[in-house]
């Protein structure tokens, strides 16, 4: 198939997501995972209120959230319809230099297609150890949640954000498949912000909120506590906490933190989907 045919097939497998609530409006893209109405998109695209999905043929349908993982910025939606044109996902390794195609709904333009080149595949500095497909490709608000595909039209990732130098980051298809199969990763139940502390600790994760009945609340963590690390490592980014939660043995994790100037330690029993803010100060 030529690039035009591949692009048209990707457009049919890409949806436009609109979410509305009294305090939030969102818009972005998504990918049809299977013919039974499963849609994959970014968590930051899906609002707290009603969410509607517009298909390539113009139909607009309500979507139910079936799984959410704010750590990995992924959501699984379900539509009340079947026989949809599902995308085909590729799981074999992505190589630098490969041609890639992105389809989405940037700035209100439905089904916009752009091309680029894979820059790298793997962790990105400052975002922890999680892997990314890193591509030199022009994206804009509204592309989030849409497909990044190879030259044959196989989806290799879900477009998520633009970082320094104009590099686009996409969640690899293997990560998406693991999320669809197993759901959300362990969570602590806090929102945090990376802040600079005193010279003794350097950096830390300031707790901005604690969810009711969460592992954080059960461990008596409070708003204003400064998470500085585990017994094994010190936190330097929000992603470090995400990695520590994912790697915790037996669902238990010992956290080191400061309450005022007093160093403390708590063991938390973690459960499943934490949310971390991307703010830094």
Coarse shape? globular
Query: Which architecture of the largest domain does the CATH hierarchy give at level 2?
Result: Beta Barrel
Class of the largest domain, according to the CATH hierarchy?
Answer: Mainly Beta
Tally of helical runs = 4
- At the fourth CATH level, what is the homologous superfamily of the largest domain? Trypsin-like serine proteases
Distance between the termini: 49 Å
Stretches where pLDDT is under 50 for at least 5 consecutive residues are 273-281
Mean pLDDT metric: 88
Strand content: 35-45%
Class by helix and strand content? mainly beta
How many strand elements? 18
Description:
With 281 residues, the protein is mainly beta. It folds into three domains: 3-78, Thrombin, subunit H (Beta Barrel); 99-182, Trypsin-like serine proteases (Thrombin, subunit H); 190-269, Pdz3 Domain (Roll), CATH 2.30.42. The protein has four helices and 18 strands. It has helices at residues 3-12, 173-182, 215-218, 238-246, and strands at residues 14-20, 25-32, 38-41, 50-54, 60-62, 64-69, 74-78, 99-104, 112-122, 132-136, 147-150, 155-162, 167-172, 190-196, 203-210, 226-230, 252-259, 262-269. The chain has a seven-stranded antiparallel beta sheet with strand order 5-4-1-2-3-7-6. It has a six-stranded antiparallel beta barrel with strand order 8-9-10-13-12-11. It has a five-stranded antiparallel beta sheet with strand order 14-15-16-17-18. Strand 12 (155-162) and strand 13 (167-172) form a beta hairpin. The radius of gyration is 20 Å and the shape is globular. Mean pLDDT is 88; it is low at 273-281.
């Amino acid at each position: 198939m030529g690039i035009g045919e591949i692009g048209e097939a990707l457009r049919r497998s890409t949806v436009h997501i609109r979410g509305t609530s009294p305090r939030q409006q969102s818009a972005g893209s998504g990918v049809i995972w299977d013919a039974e109405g499963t849609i994959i998109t970014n968590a930051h695209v899906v609002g707290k209120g009603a969410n509607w999905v517009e298909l390539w043929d113009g139909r607009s349908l309500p979507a139910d959230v079936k799984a959410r993982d704010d750590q990995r910025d992924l959501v699984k939606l379900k539509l009340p319809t079947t026989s949809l044109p599902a995308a085909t996902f590729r799981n074999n390794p992505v190589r630098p230099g490969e041609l890639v195609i992105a389809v989405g709904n940037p700035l209100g333009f439905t089904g916009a297609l752009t091309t680029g080149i894979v820059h790298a595949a793997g962790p990105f500095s400052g975002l922890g150890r999680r892997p990314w497909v890193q591509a030199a490709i022009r994206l804009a608000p509204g592309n989030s949640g849409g497909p990044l595909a190879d030259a044959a039209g196989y989806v290799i990732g879900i477009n998520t954000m633009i970082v320094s130098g104009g590099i686009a980051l996409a969640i690899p298809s293997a990560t998406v498949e693991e999320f669809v199969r197993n759901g959300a990763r362990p969570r602590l139940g806090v929102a945090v912000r990376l802040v600079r502390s005193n010279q003794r600790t350097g950096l830390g994760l300031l707790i901005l909120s604690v969810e009711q009945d969460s592992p954080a609340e059960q461990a008596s963590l409070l708003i204003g506590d400064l998470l500085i690390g585990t017994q094994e490592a010190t936190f330097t980014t929000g992603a470090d906490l995400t990695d520590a939660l994912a790697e915790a043995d037996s669902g238990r994790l010992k956290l080191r933190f400061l309450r005022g100037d007093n160093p403390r330690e708590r063991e938390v029993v973690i459960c499943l989907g934490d949310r971390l803010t991307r703010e830094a100060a």
